[in-house]
Design brief:
By secondary structure, this protein is mostly helical. About 75% of the residues lie in helices and about 0% in strands. The chain has eight helices and no strands. The longest helix is centred in the middle third of the chain and has 24 residues.
Amino acid sequence: MFSGPVFTVAMSILRDRDLAADATQQTFVKAWQGAARFDPDREFGPWIYAIARRATIDLWRRERRRSVGRAIEEVEVAVTPPGIEQTWEAFEVRNALAQLSPEERDVIRLTHFLGLTHDETAERLGIPVGTVKSRSHRAHLRLAALLRHVIEDG
């Protein structure tokens, strides 16, 4: 249940699928080892995400140390990984989008992610502008309901 979000945290920091898979595995090993310290009166998600972030950053540091000296042209770049809250919110938005119908998802993708107007979206999808507007309205209502907990927690 939490492997997907933990992997998302790792990918957002590492940007490498293999390393993110390693970090995910390390996260659950560390969680299992520290299970006695988990307070059952608190939510599990934030606890496991904190472990994931620390495990991922530790792995990133190890990999960075390992790569020093390997490449002659390496340049130090400051990397500020997104916070756990941003990663969690992005994961929640992706989950909410996945729950929309394919038609609603297409309208949201074209208007929000590609920046098309309703007219351009209608032309691209081959449907009337009114249909684009009604799908957009329904999609926004569903997203608002599906993401209410994100807004309330923020």
